[in-house]
Every structure is written in C-alpha cells, then in structure tokens.
Amino acid sequence: VQLVESGGGLVQPGGSLRLSCPAFGRTFSRYGMGWFRPAPGKECESVAGIRWSAGNTGYADSVKGRFTISRDNAKNTVYLQMNSLKPEDTAVYYCAARTRPTSTIGVFTTGAAYDYWGQGTQVTVSS
Fold first, then answer.
1. Are 127 and 15 spatial neighbours (Cβ–Cβ below 8 Å)?
2. How far apart are the first and last CA of the chain?
3. Is the separation of the CB atoms in 72 and 79 below 8 Å?
4. For 109-116, which contacts have Cβ atoms below 8 Å and span 24 or more sequence positions?
5. CA distances from residue 124 to 45, 49, 62 in whole angstroms, order as listed
6. What are the pLDDT digits (tens) for 12-61?
7. CA 121, CA 90: separation in Å to the nearest integer?
8. CB 7 within 8 A of CB 120
9. How far apart are CA 47 and CA 101, in angstroms?
10. 24 near 4, Cβ under 8 Å?
C-alpha cells in the first residue's frame, strides 16, 4: 500500500490549498484515513480524519471551520481542503490509512491507530 500526498506549496495568509492523497497497491480494506502534521511537544497531531464507509469526520480544534476532509471511493483518494490558512498552519502534512479491522465507529485521532503513511507534502503560509 502506497500513499502519495500532493498539493502542498507556498500560499499567503488567508489563502487556500487542496491536498490530495491517492492510495496505490494491493486491494485492501480501508477503515479510515487521516491527515497529520508535526506539533510542538508531539510527534504528530491529527488535523482531520474520516471513516471510509460512513464518511463521518473529525477535526482538530485549531482547524475547525477552515479545513474539510473528504474522500472519493472511485479514485481511492482522500482530500484536505484548507481555507483561511494561517502562518501557524505551516508544516509538512502527512496522509495516513487504517487497514486493521475495527469494531469502533469513531474517527481515529492518534498516529498509532493508522497502519500506512505517506511521505508528506510541505505547506508554507507566508506573506
């Protein structure tokens, strides 16, 4: 399973970017996908997550109302639409996929809950 992020770049404060993360490789079950970024005092913080079948989503408080996570089943792709970007959103953004079965229904919010990771895409918010 390979995850390949794209869509990062340099944007001015208040601007927008859309990150994409298609999944390639053998057929696998996906229980959830998420976007993470490094945070002070943490290895990575969950920015947003989505349950693949039900489509329920969750967001970090710092991005609620500004970021939207979505998925396209046909394209095996998860997206992160980022609006009203702030300098503090500057980071490498990583995509992650959960393939282990689970009986839970909530969005996965920790890195340990995910099984595969992409290489990351840099987002820089600066004037």
1. no
2. 37
3. yes
4. 109/34, 109/46, 109/49, 109/58, 110/46, 111/36, 111/43, 111/44, 111/46, 113/32, 114/32, 114/34, 115/1, 116/1, 116/2, 116/3, 116/23
5. 17, 21, 17
6. 999 999 999 998 887 667 789 999 999 877 778 999 999 988 889 999 99
7. 11
8. no
9. 22
10. yes
